[in-house]
Specification:
- This protein has helices at 16-26, 32-42, 54-65, 81-98, 103-106, 109-122, 127-138, 145-152, 169-174, 177-183, 201-205, 265-271, 308-311, 372-381, 392-400, 411-414; strands spanning 5-7, 10-12, 230-232, 241-243, 254-262, 284-287, 320-322, 334-336, 356-360, 365-368.
- It is an alpha/beta fold.
- Helix 3 (54-65) runs antiparallel to helix 6.
- The chain has 3 domains: 5-42, no CATH class; 54-205, no CATH class; 230-381, IlvD/EDD C-terminal domain-like (Glucose Oxidase, domain 1, 3-Layer(bba) Sandwich).
- The protein starts with a strand and ends in an 11-residue tail after the last helix.
- The protein is globular and about 65 Å long.
- It has an 8-stranded mixed sheet. A two-stranded antiparallel ribbon has the order 1-2.
Length: 425
């Protein structure tokens, strides 16, 4: 991660604070000069976003899986600890070769469950859901959205990190990093599994300490009682959807409002500020055709912009629903990864402007208030969009890519089966 950003008397975290101040600019609260200063102050060093975005979430997941040396995942990019970590890793890799230690002995079902628990207790990025499911599939481990939901109910959020909390990754590193953090979760971890650094995770965490209990919270003082990502079900997402509820305004976590539907991102960009839409804070913004096939590639469109005229009234969050992803640095009541996606005929394709949609995070429910009979009539009238590609890699992609709930991986890579060793025999 980068070093923390600075602007005037504020500590900045990318891209979370840039999203926030971009909204302030659109609301007329700051101007071009302030934005220029913010851009110059936001990224002070090499490195990735220093919030608990996708990068920090996935490096933490790698460490929790047991494939890095302890503490590697949070070292600031310009810290000399990187050199020491690299040297230690190189020495250990040679030892692992002599010991014939293979990834299949590390990346077990227990390891993936611990990585999920880590991501959820960190309040980490929703992107980790897709990546871990895909990685598990490549490892021959079945990991599902139901596993995420089950584990989310057993772990609290203990990392007080933006965008859901207060601090940044350098604070987390010096507060104890992931070893200290995992030492707070030993009751939910599988401690007898091996890692690349130690015979067991129990030994890896022995002696790990937390040095700042506001950055890495005690179990009896969590940032949230349950994991920071919730899995939703309902007639709008029969195969699931996700929301990073810890980064949303609490009053929107149980909400019913009329839909305003955008068929693609470009249409949304052109029309979102049109006063004729007459949007209110109660409306539910719906974006479709932004999933694995519809995007294509499931782009990070899920943090739909709030109209300028609502920003000027002080509105900073609305319920937003899509089959897209969003940046781990983003925030808001954004329901993502709706499966199946609209491009393949998922229920999102059948939503019409004015339909009532209910989001209830506590009940894990996302519901379109339309009768089954009406949905069937709409489905009968729905016409599948034409295939985007006739040949080449694009055609391979559209034929083989899976939906968000199964990891957006190629089916020919995720299926079981051995790959012959070219050097055997």
């Amino acid at each position: 991660p980068m070093l923390p950003g600075h602007w005037r008397n504020e500590v900045l975290g990318s891209g979370t604070d840039m999203w926030k101040y971009w909204d302030d600019k659109r609301a007329g609260l700051i101007g071009d000069c302030e934005m220029g200063e913010l851009e110059n102050g936001l990224a002070r060093s090499p490195g990735h976003c220093m919030t608990m975005g996708t990068a920090s979430t996935l490096t933490a997941a790698a460490e929790a899986l047991g494939v890095t040396v302890p503490g590697a995942s949070s070292i600031p990019a310009v810290d000399s600890g990187h050199d020491r970590m690299a040297a230690r890793s190189g020495l250990r890799i040679v030892e692992l070769v002599w010991q014939q230690m293979t990834l299949s002995r590390i990346l077990t079902a227990d390891a993936y469950e611990d990585a999920v628990a880590t991501v959820l207790a960190l309040g980490g990025s929703t992107n980790a859901v897709i990546h871990l499911i895909a990685m598990a599939g490549r490892s021959g481990v079945k990991l599902t959205l139901d596993d995420f939901d089950r584990i989310a109910r057993t772990v609290p959020v203990l990392a007080n990190l933006r965008p859901g909390g207060k601090y940044l990754m350098e604070d987390f590193h010096f507060a104890g990093g992931l070893p200290g953090f995992l030492a707070r979760l030993t009751d939910v971890l599988h401690l007898d599994r091996p890692t690349v650094a130690h015979p067991t995770m129990r030994e890896q965490l022995d002696g790990a300490l937390v040095h700042d209990a506001d950055v890495i919270r005690e179990r009896d003082d969590p940032l949230a009682e349950e994991g920071g990502v919730a899995v939703l079900r309902g007639n709008l997402c029969p195969d699931g959807a996700v929301i990073k509820h810890i980064a949303a305004e609490p009053h929107l976590l149980r909400h019913t409002g009329p839909a305003v539907v955008f068929d693609d991102y470009q249409e949304m960009q052109r029309t979102i500020n049109d006063p004729a839409l007459d949007l209110t804070p109660d409306h539910v913004l719906v974006l479709r055709n932004a999933g694995p096939k519809g995007g294509p590639g499931m782009p990070e469109y899920g943090m739909l912009p709030i109209p300028d005229y609502l920003l000027k009234r002080g509105v900073r969050d609305m319920v937003r629903i899509s089959d897209a992803r969003m940046s781990g640095t983003s925030y808001g009541a954004c329901v993502l990864h709706i499966a199946p996606e609209s491009f393949v005929g998922g229920p999102l394709a059948l939503v019409r402007t004015g339909d009532l949609i209910t989001l209830d995070v506590e009940a894990r429910r996302l519901h379109l208030d339309v009768t089954d009979e009406e949905l069937e009539a709409r489905r009968a009238a729905w016409t599948p969009p034409p295939a985007r590609y006739g040949r080449g890699y694009g055609a391979l992609y559209q034929d083989q890519i899976t939906q968000a709930d199964t990891g957006c991986d190629f089916t020919f890579l995720a299926r079981s089966g051995d790959v012959p060793d070219p050097y055997a025999g």
